Amino acid sequence: MTYLKHPDSIRHFQSLCDACQELTTRHHSPYELKLYADGYLHALRRNGQLDQREQIKLEELVERWIKDPSSFIGPDGEISSLFQKKAR
Prior knowledge:
With about 90 residues, this protein is mainly α. It has a domain of about 45 residues. It contains 3 helices and no strands. The longest helix is centred in the first third of the chain and has 19 residues. The radius of gyration is 14 Å and the shape is elongated. The protein starts with 6 loop residues before the first helix and ends in a 21-residue tail after the last helix.
């Protein structure tokens, strides 16, 4: 398993996880979370804050994390309501 060692990459992973969880509470889809994460990771790549190996590890870990539905909870605390838009 790929895991992060560098404190900065760990902080970026946690920040990205927190932001994606917040987006799920506003009913954003997994596709939208992926777009957000891709933009975040692209900005990190352009900025050059992480060395190349840590950047690759972070990208792989984020990819797996977003694809795993158990990574998120719905706005009401239930996985079953995740990504479901409420009727208006």
